[in-house]
Amino acid sequence: MKKLLIALTLGAALSASAQVPIQLENVTMKQNAWTRIVEVTYDLTGDTPDGVFITLDVTTNGVLIPPPVAVSGDISTETNLKIIAPGNTTKKIVWDAQKDWSGNVTTQAQAVVTAWFLNNPPENLPLTYAVVDLSGGPTASIYPVRYSVTPPNLSDDTCRTTELWLRRIPAGTFTMGSPSSEYGRVANEDVREVTLTQNFYIGVFQVTQRQWELVMGDKPSYFNNASDYAGRPVEQVSYNTIRGAVSDSPAVNWPATGSTVSSSSFMGKLRAKTGLRFDLPTCAQWEYAGRAGTSGAWNNNTTLPNPAPDTDPNLDLLGRYRYSGGYINSGADAPPQNCTTANGTAKVGSYQPNNWGLYDMHGNVSDWCLDWYADVLVSSMGGIDPQGPASSSYSYRIRRGGGYGHPAPICRIARCGFGLPTDEANSVGFRVCIQPQP
């Protein structure tokens, strides 16, 4: 049998932050005698809380071949999303070249081993979900992160309580806003084309009361005294508590100060304990993720009749609003604080998801977004990766999706609500986002 002639081997390390240096060195490539089994070894050292993804690329005669599939060992693959921790022991990848490349010819090969930080994963890994383990609670020094290609198991409340699940959303172009014929639309919903150039992760669910408690150590919600509080969305949390205030030092003022968050905020604590760039989604990211390729008033691609009543059978399937249990007595009266999830807020994930597996994009609680609010949003929310207005004459931030006490038109996917960043309302919460690297 002809051999692979092993030539120069290369190592490359991609660092997402100078604060967590990683060294990938001493890459070697060796073919076992009389076989086409290839062993690639490397040293991985440094200081990062959660490890890195490791990928292997191979060139033959100077030409890059498709990424090896028949590999095992200290490597991250489509079928085993392994995270490799740095250490003092040499790492090893075993490649069965015969399975991936059956050509019976002599060639020269080079191995390229690459380390990727968890907030900058390689495109060839189907990292559909990121999962943060919050079970260590507010005193934990690290929240471990893993990745999954399977969705959360809704029959186990772990995904709503001690774990934080996010879905990877692919970059793309979509139409933001609503057509003039959509009932309930307002002037700032004018149609505009938006392109998001980078993938990002967004919460499968709205952040729940138990998840907030495990990060922040308190229970701020109005519906926090019911026995089933843990899986209900956290509410009565302000924009400033979630990510920080303009008055903080350093100042927290999207978009003027970029992605800065306060260390004492929910996002600040998540960043410090995961190494990932947690934040709120931008308004454009929220709508893009919420629509999941649809264009109607609801993300199952249906719309309201015109004129529309305050109830809608399509919305009944998708979320908790005033007439699907949010209020009592056929929507006439607010529910008591100690109500079960039959009224008020529902346990997250109780209704149908959208095409990308995201729940409660309509109703339950309104989601805070990064952007300032303005009466005219077209110029600041169209184009490429829009960040919203530079400021707001009202000092309002945007909230999306409507809440448990709203009638149907307020819960439309295109609707932009608003509130002061200090507001704490029992119909307002949020979902997390892992922002791409700038």
Please provide a written account of the structure.
This protein has helices at residues 97-100, 209-216, 239-243, 266-274, 283-291, 313-316, 322-326, 378-381; strands at 4-6, 10-14, 22-31, 37-46, 53-60, 63-64, 71-73, 91-96, 107-116, 129-133, 145-148, 163-169, 172-176, 192-196, 200-203, 278-279, 366-372, 383-384, 397-400, 416-419, 428-429, 433-434. It folds into two domains: 4-116; 129-434, paralog of FGE (formylglycine-generating enzyme) (Alpha-Beta Complex). The strands form five sheets. A six-stranded antiparallel beta sheet has the order 11-10-12-15-22-16. Strands 1, 2, 5, 6 and 9 form a five-stranded mixed beta sheet that branches. A four-stranded antiparallel beta sheet has the order 3-4-8-7. By secondary structure, it is an alpha+beta fold. The longest helix is centred in the middle third of the chain and has 9 residues, at 266-274. The model is unreliable at 1-20 (pLDDT under 50).
